[in-house]
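Changelog-adjacent note: as of this version, every example in the card shows the full chain rather than a window. The one below runs 202 residues end to end.
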Amino acid sequence: MLPYLLFGITYAFAAAIQPGPFQTFIISKTLENGWKHTLPAAFAPVLSDGPIIVLVLLILNNIPPAMLKFLQIGGGLFLFYLAYGSFNSFLNFDKLKKPEENKTENTLLKAVLVNVLNPAPYIGWSLIMGPLFIKGYREAAVNGIVLIASFYLTIVICQMGIILLFGLARNLGPKVTRITLGIATVGLAAFGVYLVWQGVFS
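Full-length structure tokens:
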């Protein structure tokens, strides 16, 4: 059981701190709305990965290339939409109002969509987590359960850490927040270009 626990924690930590569309999104939303309104987005992988896990385990290692291309293009276009919203916040930073309560729900929903349209969870579960889960579960059910529990618990904790870290950066002053928001906007757009490019030309 211990090897599965350690792998789940280590792999989740590596995935959480690796720059990507989801991380860039939660950073931009933290800068826009503050950490309190963005914190629920840390649970997005738990909500979005359920259907992905079922799909991948049913057709393990046989995901059609066309499906990944569709996800990459769709994810890229969605990131353009998010980058546009972030850019508007950057331009109108001085006019931003206090975040509304319903922005918490909107942020969580958008975070789930970002993750669903990101090919990384499909690839990760198809090539790494899926085979290891099946192997561990066949050895003993607790191995598979520990692997998944440790992975998602670590993912959520790491995402919360990122949100809180940039929440502190937001308190350093409006200039720092606006500059960081601008960088996050560029990051969202860059990942959007990358995903569309990969979906069309790879």
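Structural remarks: The chain is about 85% helix and 0% strand.
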